[in-house]
Automatic annotation (TrEMBL):
Keywords: Oxidoreductase. One of its GO terms (cellular component) is cytoplasm. It comes from Streptomyces antibioticus. Pfam families: Aldo_ket_red. PANTHER family: AFLATOXIN B1 ALDEHYDE REDUCTASE (PTHR43625), ALDO-KETO REDUCTASE YAKC [NADP(+)] (PTHR43625:SF40). The keyword Oxidoreductase applies. This is Aldo/keto reductase. Residues 16-322 form the NADP-dependent oxidoreductase domain. One of its GO terms (molecular function) is oxidoreductase activity. InterPro entries: Aldo-Keto_reductase, NAD(P)_OxRdtase_dom_sf, NADP_OxRdtase_dom.
Amino acid sequence: MERRTIGAGALATGAVGLGCMPMSWGYSGSRQRGDESLRAVHRALDLGCTLLDTADMYGPFTNELLVGRVLKERRAEAFVSTKVGLLVGEQHIVANGRPGYVRRACDASLRRLQTDVIDLYQLHRADPEVPVEETWGAMADLVQAGKVRALGLCAVGARGARRSGGRLYDGTIRQLRRVQQVFPVSAVEAELSVWSPEALDTLLPWCAARGVGFLAAMPLGNGFLTGTLTPGEGFEPDDMRARHPRFTAEMMAANQPIIAGLRRVAARHGDAVTAAQVALSWVLSQGPHVIPIPGAKRERWVTENAGATEIRLTPEDLAEVAGLPGARGSWD
Ligand SMILES: NC(=O)c1ccc[n+]([C@@H]2O[C@H](COP(=O)([O-])OP(=O)(O)OC[C@H]3O[C@@H](n4cnc5c(N)ncnc54)[C@H](OP(=O)(O)O)[C@@H]3O)[C@@H](O)[C@H]2O)c1
């Protein structure tokens, strides 16, 4: 598989990574597919999808434990990205950016991941009670201690930004400027997909200008852009799409022209090419510093998603995707 590098330290990973979250968190059936998930992670490494993206919050903790079972056997083949800063409370998810907590959380992640170093340690969310420089300073100390190779920052997505009344990613860029004063940012993780292209306006160029890698989260639109979901099929209460405004039956039906467009482009590249592969290829074409991390807990999807690196979208394809209608259904 094509390799891409992120950050000034030129850390190399496969061009397509693997988002491990759906194996333990956020999607219905997450907890029932342990063995299948393990096979999916192994398959990803077999295919050169070396970047495994997890977080202590996913599960909580069980996602790191699962990834750790693979790392125990194949550490040298993987690039592991995990996150700190969000805790699952009884009622809500809360931020904790206190330096002492960050140090303890890192040691706990290392134990669960069965490794002595994390390749990319990301701040999941800044704690409003703690200056972000303090949290980032504690994370930088972990690099000095050899427990972490590089630091990353996760952006607050559409829901959080709209709630706080800001323009999408303005707040993230302000945070990035502040933490860069303390220690270099190697990667930013934020949503980027055909139906959520907002990062292209300011965040992606900010990263490109500074050699900062961009991990594209939710590159398949939480599964919608694969065209395998049926409007009105419904989601279990533990599936985050049950509360997502784009996943009502009405909005899923209204957004079908986006799938139709992806399929038209796919057809130009061969009978076996899928809408999911075109969606990922579009993300890959946004810059050499961009690494999509599609979430998948099935080997079949991992194999299909890795195949996106073999598709080269033409200017005509990119123009067709750019001309697709904007997604209906927002958090406003
Ligand atoms: N930093 C953050 O705040 C943040 C937020 C959200 C996500 N993330 C990261 O980004 C990663 C990706 O996001 P995501 O997993 O939420 O969304 P996604 O990658 O857009 O979509 C994942 C969904 O697509 C399905 N899928 C994957 N490949 C498919 C294919 N080829 N054909 C049909 N269906 C396919 C998966 O199904 P199965 O589950 O059945 O395999 C899963 O339901 C996460 O795993 C996580 O690591 C980060």
